[in-house]
Each structure stands twice: as C-alpha cells, then as structure tokens.
Amino acid sequence: MNKALILAAGVSRRLYPLTYDTPKTLLSLGDQRIIDYQIQALEKARILDCVVITGYYRERLERYLLTHYPEVRFQFIVNHHFFETNTAYSVRLAQEAFQNQETMVLMNADVLFPPDLLFRVLEAPTPTTLAVDIKPCGTEEVKVIEGGDQRIVAIGKKLIEENALGEFIGVAKLAPDFVQQFFRSLDHLIEAGGDADYFEAALHPLLKDHSVHYVNVSDFPCLEIDFAEDLEQARQLAREWPE
C-alpha cells in the first residue's frame, strides 16, 4: 500500500514578506496553490492516505486541505519546533504513522510537478526510487552521484558539483523495509544533534548497503520554490500547465 508523507512545516524566510502570515505551500500560482498540484497528483494516483507534517501557520494549511480534499484521509502531525529544525526532524515525527509496511511516497511541499512525474516514480521497477532532474547543479541543490545502473551512491548539498548527476527534486518512493532503516538512520542523526539537517543526511549513510535508484524526470516541468524568482517562474509554469 502506498501512503504519502508531505513535509510542510517550514517558515520559508527566504520568501518574506510573502510568507509573513501564510505557509509557503498556500501561496497562489494563479487559480491554485502550490499544495494543490501535489494533492491532485496523489488523487490521480489513488493515493488517498496522506500524512502531512505541519508547523508554521498550521491551522490555515490543515483547514484548507480538509475543506478542498474531502476524499483524502489526512493525518496531521505538528512539528512544534519548526523555527529551529529542518526536514530530518519533520520526517522522524512520522515514524509511528509508518509501521504497517506501507510504501512511503515522500514529497517536499514546495515542489511544483505534474502528475505524470509522480506516476513515473511509482511505476519504476526499483522498490526505492528518487526523482532526479539530470542537469548541472550549483551549491543550493540537493545533488546525487550515480554509481552505475541508475543506483545512487551519494546524496546531499555538499557534494562536488562536477561529480553530480543532477538534482533530487524532493519526490521519492521508499520501500517498506527501507522506510524502517530510514527511520533508524534519522534516530541516529537527531540523537547526534542533527535537528537542523535535511532528511537527505539520513539517506546518505544507507546508500552503501541498500539499493536506492533514480528515475530521470528532466523531461518534466518541475521546480522547487525557495525564492521570489522561483515563485514567479512557478507561476509562469502554472499558466502553461496542460489541462
């Protein structure tokens, strides 16, 4: 069974003043909000069990989702420490929600992508699969390095840019057994003081002993929205979005 985990707790200071009083994922992209594209992709894939990690202005996001998507079975988990923690801490909060051998469909809430991208990840023959945009990367991107046969051998922001295959765009399918290993790695990371780390810091140590593969999604329009210029680009993409 597939079960989604959406990370939507962050403050998004880099988008101030637009996010002074609203979570980033509720920012408008024309007629829709950022979060609409993700939930609608899940609905098309018939993934109706969805855990959402909320934090910053959580009441607004929870109310919006419950009002607009009555068919989705939401479970909201609050990261009360959203100001000082990062995605590793947020994912770890979902540990009890993934104890029944579910495949985790993990998504960052600030990524704009079409449903077909999600289908490509879900339909990949490899049980644990990350969506990667193959391209030259800079310092800000979460980069991956390939070891052959589409297997990922390194992931993180601090990798040498020239060695990187491309950017992990924050959409992944994690097999049930891998999910449990992932949570153990998160436990070690958080206990070592990694509250402010990205969750990829807990993925990286698992790559040596666990098969983690990628699918190339560079033919799809997709964008992580961090800065004002990203938001403008996302709005342009949304205007051109196919029906």
What does this structure look like?
By secondary structure, this protein is of the alpha/beta class. It has a single domain, classed as Spore Coat Polysaccharide Biosynthesis Protein SpsA, Chain A (Alpha-Beta Complex), CATH 3.90.550.10. About 30% of the residues lie in helices and about 25% in strands. The protein contains seven helices and 13 strands. Strands 1, 4, 5, 6, 8, 9, 10, 11 and 12 form a nine-stranded mixed sheet that branches. The chain has a two-stranded antiparallel sheet with strand order 2-3. The protein has a two-stranded antiparallel sheet with strand order 7-13. A hairpin with a 2-residue loop joins strand 2 and strand 3. The longest helix has 16 residues. The two termini are about 30 Å apart. About 40% of the residues are buried. The mean pLDDT is about 90.
Number of domains: 1
Task: Classify the helix fraction into a percent range.
Answer: 25-40%
Radius of gyration: 17 Å
Low-pLDDT segments, ≥5 res: none
Structural class, by secondary structure, is alpha/beta
CATH architecture, by name, is: Alpha-Beta Complex
CATH class category label: Alpha Beta
Shape: globular
Number of strands: 13
Reported by name, the CATH topology is Spore Coat Polysaccharide Biosynthesis Protein SpsA, Chain A
Report the biggest beta sheet as strand number plus sense, adding barrel if it closes.
Answer: 9 strands, mixed
